[in-house]
């Protein structure tokens, strides 16, 4: 029965000029999300409100599901609208609405409290909002013995917005919260095929940050399917974050060179330092203001405090690690919610699992690491340059 949605958003920090940026970004992200739905939709804003209206037949569940991926939305209110054909007709429409949305679903003997909330966006309507509240309240009380008025803490707020047409809504479905993507700069996500990094990308993009991503692959040690898995993960994240430019970098020669020249127990740390360095170069070329990883303290040897300090040391951009204090189960819970989990656990090798030492250092000494990195002096700069040239950019959009 619903034909449109009123979009609620938290207005904290949305004063003055920021408000337009926030609302425009939100409208754009809503359009992006609605493109994935059957049917045609119009998204518009007026007087501090955003509406999504179906212009054709559409699937209600699908529309709600997709609106729930738009950061910045705090609530989704399914609406109906009717033409303004006089107050009596409106009262009839409201009775219909209450009947369908509530009364038909109520059990025998059940009761419900409500409050009418009318708003006039045009002042030429013959009744003012208080009069509408009173009159409509009376009509509904007469029609349905199950209903009672409670002006302080009603079960249901029945909203009536008088515009060119009249909008009626009363339900609010929770949105994902956060800030609209595009209101807070851009960052580069180090995206592996694992569980954590897609979650990290989702969490940072929730704060309004646009995301690019980089994946280091190591053919032939890692397969095409491992790469496809990363593309699939980026696609899942892009439901929330908007389109992602995924940079695929061939890391094989660097990895082999480190393997040849450095102690194997330090391999992971040194490799990770080079990943960060390269990611930072690509980030800077693409106006990213930070890096994002899925690291979590103590998860593996390369993520102890010592290891993180050693990895971090090569970066000049801030590194955001939103999973840093989360347990694996907590990260898994988010990955299930955003539907990346099933993809993440597919068993394709990523480049880190091939070259892992049996006993990697857990307390790397930065001085020692740097000393051993000197073994790489001869070729590493050239290899990094070559790796950067292999950059294959895949534009990933949610379907
Ligand atoms: P995830 O952390 O996503 O579950 P993982 O556990 O295999 O994957 P780690 O080896 O723990 O990854 O690496 C920690 C972080 O380093 C990842 O969260 C990711 O941000 C980054 N990273 C690791 N491997 C790669 C890679 N091949 N390409 C891009 N980034 C990577
Ligand atoms: Mg991990």
Summarize the SSE layout with pairings.
Elements: E1 4-9, H1 16-34, E2 41-46, E3 49-54, H2 60-67, E4 73-83, H3 87-101, E5 112-120, H4 129-143, E6 147-149, E7 156-162, E8 165-169, E9 173-174, E10 186-190, H5 196-205, E11 210-217, H6 224-241, E12 244-250, H7 252-261, H8 267-285, E13 291-292, H9 305-312, E14 319-320, H10 328-337, H11 341-344, H12 351-354, H13 366-373, H14 380-389, E15 392-396
The structure holds adenosine-5'-triphosphate and magnesium ion (MG).
The site of magnesium ion (MG) has 4 residues, from loops.
What does this structure look like?
The chain is an alpha/beta fold and 399 residues long. It folds into 2 domains: 4-174, VC0802-like (2-Layer Sandwich); 186-396, HUPs (Rossmann fold, 3-Layer(aba) Sandwich), CATH 3.40.50.620. It has helices at residues 16-34, 60-67, 87-101, 129-143, 196-205, 224-241, 252-261, 267-285, 305-312, 328-337, 341-344, 351-354, 366-373, 380-389; strands at 4-9, 41-46, 49-54, 73-83, 112-120, 147-149, 156-162, 165-169, 173-174, 186-190, 210-217, 244-250, 291-292, 319-320, 392-396. Strands 1, 2, 3, 4, 5, 6, 7, 8 and 9 form a 9-stranded mixed beta sheet that branches. Strands 14-13-10-11-12-15 form a 6-stranded mixed beta sheet. The protein binds adenosine-5'-triphosphate and magnesium ion.
């Amino acid at each position: 029965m619903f034909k449109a949605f009123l979009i609620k958003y938290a207005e904290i920090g949305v004063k003055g000029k920021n408000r337009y940026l926030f609302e425009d970004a939100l409208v754009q992200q809503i359009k992006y999300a609605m493109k994935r739905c059957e049917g045609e939709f119009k998204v518009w804003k007026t007087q501090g409100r955003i509406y999504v209206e179906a212009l054709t037949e559409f699937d209600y569940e699908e529309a709600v599901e997709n609106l729930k991926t738009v950061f910045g939305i705090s609530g989704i209110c399914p609406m109906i609208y009717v033409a303004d054909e006089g107050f009596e007709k409106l009262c009839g429409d409201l009775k219909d609405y209450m009947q369908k949305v509530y009364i038909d679903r109520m059990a025998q003997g059940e009761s419900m409290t409500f409050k009418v909330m009318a708003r006039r966006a045009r002042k030429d309507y013959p009744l003012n909002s208080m009069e509408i509240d009173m009159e409509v309240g009376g009509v509904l009380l007469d029609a349905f013995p199950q209903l009672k008025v409670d002006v302080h803490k009603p079960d249901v707020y029945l909203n009536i917005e008088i515009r060119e047409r009249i909008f009626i809504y009363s339900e609010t479905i929770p949105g994902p919260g956060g800030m609209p993507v595009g209101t807070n700069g851009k960052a580069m996500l180090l995206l592996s095929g694992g569980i954590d990094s897609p979650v990290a990308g989702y969490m940072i993009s929730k704060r309004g940050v646009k995301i690019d991503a980089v994946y280091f692959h190591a053919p032939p040690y890692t397969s095409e399917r491992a790469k496809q898995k990363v593309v699939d993960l980026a696609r899942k994240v892009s439901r929330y974050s908007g389109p992602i430019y995924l940079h695929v970098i061939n890391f094989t020669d660097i990895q082999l060179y480190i393997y040849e020249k450095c102690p194997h127990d330090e391999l992971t740390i040194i490799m990770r330092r080079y990943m960060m360095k390269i990611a930072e170069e690509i980030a800077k070329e693409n106006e990213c203001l930070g890096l994002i990883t899925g690291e979590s303290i103590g998860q593996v040897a390369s993520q102890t405090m010592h290891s993180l300090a050693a990895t971090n040391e090569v970066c000049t951009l801030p590194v955001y690690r939103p999973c840093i204090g989360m347990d694996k189960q907590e990260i898994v819970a988010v990955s299930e919610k955003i539907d990346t989990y099933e993809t993440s656990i597919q068993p394709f090798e990523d480049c880190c699992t091939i070259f892992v030492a049996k006993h990697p250092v857990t307390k790397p000494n930065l001085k020692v690491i740097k000393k051993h990195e000197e073994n790489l002096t001869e070729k590493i700069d050239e290899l990094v340059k070559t790796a950067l040239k292999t950059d294959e950019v895949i534009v990933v959009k949610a379907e």
